[in-house]
Amino acid sequence: MTDGKNGLTYAQAGVDIDAGNAMVEKIKPMVRSTRRPGADGEIGGFGGLFDLKAAGFTDPILVAANDGVGTKLRVAIEAGKHDTVGIDLVAMCVNDLVVQGAEPLLFLDYFATGKLDPDQGAAIVSGIAEGCRQAGCALIGGETAEMPGMYSGDDYDLAGFAVGAAERGQLLPTDDIVEGDVILGLASSGVHSNGFSLVRRIVADSGIGWHDKAPFDPYRSLGEALLEPTRIYVKPLLSAIRSTHGIKALAHITGGGFPENIPRVLPADFSAELDLDAIDPPKVFSWLAKTGGVAANEMMRTFNCGIGMVLVVAAGQAAQVAAVLQQSGEDVTTIGRILPRRETGVVYRGQIEL
Q: Which of 16, 112, 141, 229 could form a disulfide with 145 if both were Cys (CB 3.0 to 4.6 A apart)?
């Protein structure tokens, strides 16, 4: 076979296969660190394998979820900090699995960039591996795509795919939610990974740079503080689900905040009444609200406002569930109760202090 008349190579077109191979070698130890029963293979094949029987399941229902990190990635890119957005990527997927009572088993990532930097890619995957370890799932594969012409400069994008399982008959929500059930809230670690288009607009209008000191955190830059990764609730919630059998429903508070996410797990004839006086938003939310002039209702339908996960619990078991979660390191607050259906799926009493 003879070369073409111009002798072009793939590298000259902007795709460096050698850089991709170098990245794979860098991330192999990270991937190995996520091994768990059911998944102990190496990356590099055409597909990842998982053995449900070896993971201890008898009659499992598979549950799948996929998500991204959204425009929080712009903060990572502009701040030059790439080792935490991988945690966000895993969190956004596995938290959506556990709300259905499923144990996350495996994770795959998709990383696309215009020009592959193996060190940057390895930093991103280090975060993905850390997220998988926190969630107890195996990183069994993924895809790194170098696509010149699709992404400019240092831009990149991430997507994640997670699969979990629950034994048949043990999925959430349950069908026995009743009036008087207690609503518990688990504290968030910050903004998590939603609402960052509004966050970035507020930051731009404020004139504060990503490397300047955060107005709400004297120990970190603004970029570092806003890149605080999404909390992964999987292990504490699985422990509480399995040991108490008192959790009836879970809602991951992501885009849409309280009014969009809580009704998704309630029967049509019930509403959630939230006591806003019980919620103590972290300083970052107060800063965003005041700097951007964002109204409370808009804050509560855009951000988690300090509550990253909501639980519906049988009234008689609320204390037990809270105790198990607190023993696992969660900050638990009673934030409401279940009522017969009102005009909307979420009603408020009190006022959130922003």
A: 112
Q: Are 51 and 40 in contact (CB under 8 A)?
A: no
Q: How far apart are CA 223 and CA 302, in angstroms?
A: 20
Instruction: Decide: 96 and 135 in contact? Cβ < 8 Å.
Output: no
Q: Residue 187's CB: how many other CB atoms inside 10 A?
A: 18
Tell me: pLDDT of 14 over 80. no
Q: Is the separation of the CB atoms in 189 and 225 below 8 Å?
A: no
List beta partners, residue 250.
311
Question: What does the H/E/C string look like for the chain?
Answer: CCCCCCCCCCHHHCCCHHHHHHHHHHHHHHHHCCCECCECCCCCCCCCCCCCCCCCCCCEEEEEEEEECCCHHHHHHHHCCCCCHHHHHHHHHHHHHHCCCCEEEEEEEEEEECCCCHHHHHHHHHHHHHHHHHHCCEEEEEEEEECECCECCCCEEEEEEEEEEEECCCCCCCCCCCCCCEEEEEECCCCCCCCHHHHHHHHHHHCCCCCCEECCEEEEEHHHHHCCCCCCCHHHHHHHHHHHCCEEEEEECCCCHHHHHHHHHCCCCEEEEEEHHHCCCCHHHHHHHHHHCCCHHHHHHHCCCCEEEEEEECHHHHHHHHHHHHHCCCCEEEEEEEEECCCCCEEEECCCCC
pLDDT in tens, 235-253: 999 999 999 999 999 999 9
For residue 316, with 0-12 CB atoms within 10 Å meaning exposed, 13-18 middle and 19 or more buried, which class applies? exposed
